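Re: that chain you flagged

S.,

Sorry for the slow reply, it's been a week of failed gels. I finally had a moment to sit down with the sequence you sent. For the record, here it is as I used it:
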Amino acid sequence: MKRVFCSLALMLIIAAIVASGCGKSDSLRQDLEQVSSDVVEIRGLTPKDEVEYRFVTSAQLREQFVSDFEEEYPQEEARIDQEVYVLLDLMEQDQDLYTILLDVLSEQIAGFYDYDLGELYVVSDREELGPMERVIFAHEYAHALQDQYFDLSSLPLEEEDNSDLSVAAVSLTEGDALLVQSSYMFDYLSADELQAVLEESQEAEMEKFEAAPRFIRESILAPYEEGLSFVLALGGWEGIDQAYGDLPQST
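Prediction finished late last night. Pasting the structure tokens below so you have them in one place:
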């Protein structure tokens, strides 16, 4: 499947969409500009080019995701994958891998950066960004900066012949963005805003995710959890920057 960088509440998951960015208020754009400025200060990378924003509603995002998922992950491919997972005793014969993945990945999509198009998609059903939306945007804007400085399309993020190498590269990018996100949460949100984010993440509907086979849950979370541990061990932003030129070769 096509790799885009996305957020699922505080958990970040995969999606894809094409949508129009018209008609949003000046207040919303000012919110985005402020968060962008904060992320630049945190990450220490000044944008080389203007990042294009696209605005979509939650309903538009979900609808397009389902369409793209069906196109990019054919059911026949899912059937073959499922046979392998059943043989490895990772899932039951009567479970449907295709449906499970579709349900899990589309459960609560909240935003993403598409490095093929160089566009950042903002999911907002309101005319301003709440604390959670700002946190999500901070994460995705970090991906936009990564792309401008380290060319995400040149990284082995979709290496079909070496999935471990791919997961390692994704873990670097996600750990980097998650560190930016965490710094933004604790340094730029008020105590009340931080509490609101934590409460919203705890209340998020995760029924499909929690019901999925363990290996699916772990494979989704691993790039974020392991990625954050990895970038923290690099000793700061300079070490993280250098890692893009000397990528981890395995997880």
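What I noticed first: Residues 8-23 have pLDDT under 50 and may be disordered.

Talk soon,
D.
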